[in-house]
Amino acid sequence: MIVNKLGRELPETIGTYKVKPYAGAHVTPAPTTPVVTKRTQRLRIPGESKLLPDLKAAIKASGLKDGMTISFHHSFRSGDKVIGQVLTAIRDLGIKNLRFAPSAVVDLKNPSIVDFVKSGTINRIEASGIRGSLGDAVLHGALSEPVILRTHGARSRAIETGELQIDVAFIGASASDDYGNSTGLIGPNACGALGYSFVDVHNAGCVIVITDNLVEYPCIPASISQQYVDYVVKVDSIGDPAKIGSGAARLTKNPRDLMIAERAAKVMAASRFFKNGFSFQTGAGAISIATTKYLADCMRARGVKASFALGGITSAIIDMYDEGLVRAVECNQSFDSVAAKAINDRPGVVEIDTEDYASAYTKGGFLNRETFGILGALEVDTDFNVNILTGSSGEMRGGLGGGPDVAGGAQVSIVTIPLIRGRTPSIVKHVFTACTPGETVAVVVTEAGIALNPRHKNYQMLKEDLKKTSLPLVSIEELQKMAEDLTGVPKPIETTDDVVCIVEYRDGTVVDVIRKLKE
Question: What is the CA angle 389-108-113, rounded to 5?
Answer without folding.
Answer: 85
